[in-house]
Amino acid sequence: QVQLVDSGGGLVQPGGSLRLSCAASGFTVGDYVIGWFRQAPGNEREGVSCISSSDGSTYYADSVKGRFTISRDNAKNTVYLQMNSLKPEDTAVYYCRADFGTTYWGQGTQVTVSS
Fold first, then answer.
1. DSSP states of the chain as a string?
2. Does 100 score more than 90 pLDDT?
3. How many CB atoms are closer than 10 A to CB 49?
4. What is the mean pLDDT of residues 17-45?
5. How many percent of the chain have pLDDT more than 70?
6. Rounded CA gap, 88 and 97, in Å?
């Protein structure tokens, strides 16, 4: 059974850091593209970052480039999103996603950036 479990969110001050985790079961994260998305209240869900299955190449939305880093630990079957220099506009629920014929989503983890 495929499952994605998101964790690591919380309340952080502007300029702070968080590391989100997406723990997968039922498939191997190294075999598929895994993405992080976010959705703020009143907004559509938007793509933040993804990591490829073949060579580990990465993609970042312009709004997070240089501040966020996506990585993958094949031994733990987990994908991470390291978020630095957080801004209030990064506040959202963050979800990981995997696509292989069917789209699977994590349950989401809330990130709030506020002083």
1. --EEEEE--EEE-TT--EEEEEEEESS-GGGS-EEEEEE-TTS--EEEEEE-SSS--EEE-TTTTTTEEEEEETTTTEEEEEE-S--GGG-EEEEEEEEESEEEE---EEEEE--
2. no
3. 23
4. 96
5. 100
6. 23
